[in-house]
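Duplicate of #3305? Posting structure anyway:
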């Protein structure tokens, strides 16, 4: 097994949802390279297994865990299984998400429910259930004192630049990502007495299969050639390039580290300057 890039997360146990591809896989790889055991919580079983094999070849053992993150019973079982195997949970990265590019006036109740089930319900109950486990890991004398002296867990939720402003062609997605910021703030306040840090990241345009899907649907909608919509979007980015999964992974790794112990309830834009609020 190759040596980790650093020991920043040495021996930590991290759950990364949607880690079978795209940004989630990039985050999982970064955490693994820095010494963490990563649970690849992924809807597509084959993607979960392939990712776990790759991770285990570059760092500590990873666990493939096929899951429908919109099913709370499956979330509860995953937490139980992870604790049975590794003994604890130190980090949760809520990356799993779905999107549609539907004109707002054409959004159906099914469209809304499809997005909200994963992006809102799944995120909320993963936070809640993992937080319960993190609190259970804190020594009783620390809880009794009313103040935890250091961080007892890191939770990072994925919002988006779409959570910063509305989107006429993905209103249900934008609403769900605004909700993630709100849930992040609520959880940060609720978990502050236990010194469990809860933050969010807001990626912009990232070279992933999801963005390939968005490019294809928008190009068809506006009569463009494949890649033209993506290129026009990149031109609007101040840094003049799309992000790589590694760019987002670096920010997540920081928010999962001891370096972020005094940061909670924040939503960090990782977007090349698209949003500056």
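Output from current build:
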């Amino acid at each position: 097994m190759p040596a980790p890039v650093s020991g920043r997360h040495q021996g930590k146990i991290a759950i990364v949802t949607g880690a079978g591809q795209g940004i989630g896989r990039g985050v999982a790889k970064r955490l693994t390279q820095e010494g963490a055991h990563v649970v690849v919580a992924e809807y597509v079983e084959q993607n979960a297994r392939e990712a776990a094999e790759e991770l285990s070849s570059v760092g500590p053992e990873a666990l493939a865990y096929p899951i429908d993150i919109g099913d709370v019973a499956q979330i509860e079982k995953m937490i139980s299984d992870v604790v049975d195997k590794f003994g604890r949970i130190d980090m949760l990265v809520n990356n799993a998400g779905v999107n549609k590019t539907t004109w707002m006036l054409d959004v159906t109740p099914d469209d809304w429910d499809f997005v909200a089930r994963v992006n809102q319900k799944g995120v909320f109950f993963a936070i809640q259930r993992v937080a319960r486990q993190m609190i259970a890991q804190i020594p009783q004398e620390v809880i009794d004192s009313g103040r935890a002296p250091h961080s007892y867990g890191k939770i990072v939720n994925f919002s988006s630049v779409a959570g910063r402003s509305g989107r006429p062609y993905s209103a249900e997605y934008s609403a769900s990502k605004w909700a993630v910021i709100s849930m992040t703030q609520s959880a940060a306040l609720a978990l502050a007495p236990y010194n469990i840090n809860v933050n969010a990241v807001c990626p912009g345009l990232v070279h992933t299969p999801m963005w390939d899907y968005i490019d294809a649907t928008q190009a068809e909608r506006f009569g463009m050639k494949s890649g033209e919509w993506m290129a026009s979007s990149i031109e609007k980015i101040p840094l003049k390039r799309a992000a790589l999964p590694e760019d987002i992974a670096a920010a997540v790794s920081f928010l999962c580290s001891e370096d972020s112990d005094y940061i909670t309830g924040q939503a960090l834009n990782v977007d090349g300057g698209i949003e500056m609020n």
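Confirmed duplicate; merging threads. The chain has two domains: 13-204+244-270, 205-242. Strands lie at 13-17, 37-42, 63-66, 91-94, 153-158, 196-203, 267-270.
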